[in-house]
Design a protein that fits this description.
This protein has 8 helices and 5 strands, in the order ααββααβααββαα. By secondary structure, the chain is mainly α. Helix 3 crosses helix 4 and helix 5 packs across helix 6. The protein is globular and about 50 Å long. The two termini are 35 Å apart.
């Protein structure tokens, strides 16, 4: 079972550290001051528990943004814990997770939501451990393609197995409710229809 939230997107960035909330707020001007001014905001060291009632609700429905931040923080913490259990940093695990199929370095960076120098750093570390290999990208000899080695594929299977054990966001939801939640989140995250 894949608990990472549909391919991109929660989970640590290649920047090693910081929760999704912190990364999100870092992209928004003025969020740092707002965070300091919100008296009812609490954060734990691991970033697993957050109260952001003092923050404006950017999702357009009061109370929704704090819940989404909490869900993201829990997913981040679960992913980082599973990464550590297989001997990877969160960024390395993110790359391994995204390499179900070989990818060019640029595409891997897009999937990981990180800048090219960070991707290079992460891939260098994985290559040193024999988990990935680089070769020419078909159709563009100037670019590099990255793929998992046999050891890398085995480690990826181990990571996915660990992610499926006690995933966050189960709560008291039944199977039908989880399917509904998945459908609603997919619709909410879909690109708006240009028509």
């Amino acid at each position: 079972m894949d608990t990472r939230g549909g391919g991109r997107r929660t989970g640590a960035s290649a920047g090693e550290g910081g929760s999704a909330v912190a990364r999100h707020e870092a992209r928004e001007p003025g969020r740092e001051a707002e965070r300091e001014a919100a008296p009812d905001r609490t954060e734990t060291e691991a970033g697993a528990r957050r109260t952001v009632r003092g923050a404006a609700d950017i999702a357009g429905l009061p109370g929704l943004t704090p819940l989404l931040y909490e869900a993201t923080a829990r997913l981040d913490a679960h992913f980082a814990s599973c990464a550590a259990a297989v001997g990877l940093t969160a960024s390395q695990a993110n790359a391994v997770y995204e390499l179900a199929e070989p990818a060019g370095m640029r595409e891997l960076g897009r999937r990981m939501c990180c800048e090219p120098p960070n991707v290079t750093f992460v891939v260098d570390r994985l290559e040193e451990r024999g988990l990935v290999r680089r070769g020419p990208l078909p159709g563009d000899r100037r670019a590099k393609q990255v793929e998992l080695t046999e050891d890398g594929r085995a480690l990826r299977r181990d990571l996915l197995d660990r992610l499926a054990v006690d995933p966050p966001l189960r709560g008291g939801l039944g199977d039908d409710e989880r399917r509904t939640l998945r459908t609603l989140l997919a619709r909410a995250l879909a690109d708006p229809d240009p028509a």
